[in-house]
Amino acid sequence: MSDQDDPRPFPDPAQLPEVPPDTLGLDAEEMRRLGHKVVDMVVDRAMARGQEPAIRTGDAADLRDRLGGPLPEAPGDPDAALELMAEVALAHQQHGDHPRYFARVPGPAAFAAILGEWMGTGFNTICASWGGASGPATVELVALGWLSEMLGLPAGTEGVLLSGGSMGNLTGFAVARAEMGPGVAYLTDQTHASLPRNLRALGFAGDEIARLPADARWRMSAETLRAAISRDRAAGRRPMMVVATAGATNTGAVDPLPEIADICASEGLWLHVDGAYGAPAAITEEGRAALAGLDRADSLALDPHKWLFQPYDLGVCLVTRPGALERSFAIHPEYLRDVREGAGEVNFGDRSLELSRRSRALKLWMSLRTYGAARFRQAVRDGIACAETAEAMLRAAPETWEVVTPAQLGIVCFAGRGADAAAHEAAARALAESGYACVTTTSLGGRSVLRLCTINPLTTEDDLRGTLDRLAAALAAPPAG
Ligand SMILES: Cc1ncc(COP(=O)(O)O)c(C=O)c1O
Q1: Which DSSP symbol is given to 283?
Q2: Where are the domains of the chain?
Q3: 435 vs 474: CA distance, rounded Å
Q4: pLDDT tens-digit readout, 55-81
Q5: CA dist 6 → 2, 11, 92, 382 (Å)
């Protein structure tokens, strides 16, 4: 039989070169060498993270000069590219894993989670259909099951991994809308700004987004909610969903979930909980108490890239009504007809707006297997305790500081005695520019405050003290100029 008659479309495996070539021609040994170099660069940087600036922001023109240039037409030096990437691009960012990065929400990613992320990228995993990803899909189902169990959610809870809180909340809202039909969603003025944006993107009209004033503790008031629902019914509108927050970005405050869940049950409304920041605290005993009622949510968003030590990005949408995710998102076009749908087989592309999607579960699975749930609980407990320690330090210096909101789920807000917004902002800026630490300001009811978010288990008492001392010194210094 001649070669031309050979029906096999592929070359004889014995004839294949020992090392298959890279798609675009990088040598395998070179890939191995560069890969080891990348691991060394990442570990070396992580080991030195306490010495680098907590945040560094570059000048736009300078960064463009150093990272840009004409389109590279010919091959270049990958070592030089990696070094430039580390020294210029990756040096100019917030280091959310720095022990003194207290701004917004830190991102203290753990080593084993980073390894899981790298494996998915290295194996070029796509977790869209069962047929194309039965292994990774099983990892996602297992990771979601472990997560639901750690959070104390009811059996039968289903979920999908997404890019973050914004997409987690958007997915929950889309499911609520598909299950319940159109109507009014209730939020507060402390709800994260991405949530009303999600609702607008989904087509909720202005009068279907009811932003209620928060109470004196920056939580949703059950009384205000009840009044708004009856006002809307009287005006002919159709209440549909309550959006509670479990761990507000500003203060860590938790809306009164049991009361809100009772209202939802009696009024026939969907309960969505935005736990993007705070829900991971429910894996600890003290957090579970603060988050009582979380298990009564119909849908819940949370972000393991915030407080479960995962690298960006990783958000989750969990839904306690079986089948609701697929009822909202499943698609059956002719070109996906050969996708399998047997018992226990999940096409994750049918659970959100993402069809092609990488396997974000690998990092969560890998880190739970490596560290164990008990280690996660301890690390979250440390973050809760750290804010309480900061609060105690602030209260011990009443001539310098006023505690504006107490430590709640790893966040404390405070003000310098006699300091206004400009003074707070200048002190926070000076601290960030010094490289020692990064804190941000926010505003509560029009009042400027400084805010610490302390969820990095590597933060020490010395880090807290050093940060507060430097802020106090900056506030005491006469304004420049
Ligand atoms: C309470 C809350 N909800 C939603 C979000 C949005 O999450 P992401 O930035 O992951 O999209 C955040 C972000 O900080 C948050 O704190």
Answers
A1: G
A2: 115-371, 375-476
A3: 14
A4: 999 999 999 999 999 999 999 999 999
A5: 7, 10, 57, 66
**What contacts 123, CB < 8 A, 6 or more positions away?**
none
Taking the C-alpha atoms of residue 303 and residue 3, their distance in angstroms, rounded to an integer, is: 56
Interval between CA 96 and ligand 1 midpoint (Å): 15
Q: Is the CB of 105 under 6 A from ligand 1?
A: yes
320 lines ligand 1 (CB under 6 A): no
Tell me whether residue 72 is exposed, middle or buried, using C-beta atoms within 10 angstroms of its C-beta: 0 to 12, 13 to 18, 19 or more. Answer: exposed
pLDDT tens-digit readout, 391-428: 999 999 999 999 999 999 999 999 999 999 999 999 99
- What fold does the segment set 375-476 form as a domain? Aspartate Aminotransferase, domain 1 (3.90.1150)
CA Rg, the chain, in Å?
25
Q: CB under 8 Å to 408, separation ≥6 — which residues?
A: 247, 251, 252, 253, 254, 290, 387
CA 215 – CA 155 distance, rounded (Å):
33
Reduced 3-state DSSP string for 424-437:
HHHHHHHHHHHCCC
Are residues 68 and 22 in contact, defined by beta-carbon separation less than 8 angstroms? Answer: no
Dist. CA 276 → ligand 1 center (Å) = 5
Type and span of the H or E element at 275: strand 270-275
pLDDT in tens, 93-110: 999 999 999 999 999 999
Residues 212 and 229: their CA atoms lie apart, in Å, by: 11
DSSP label at 321? S
Distance 248 CA to ligand 1 centre (A): 9
Considering the domain 115-371, what is its CATH architecture? 3-Layer(aba) Sandwich (3.40)
Answer whether 303 contacts ligand 1 (Cβ < 6 A): yes
pLDDT for 440 beyond 60? yes
**What is the per-residue pLDDT for 336?**
80
Ligand 1 centroid – CA 208 distance (Å): 22
Neighbour count for residue 473 (Cβ, 10 Å): 12
Q: How far is CA 11 from the centre of its chain?
A: 46
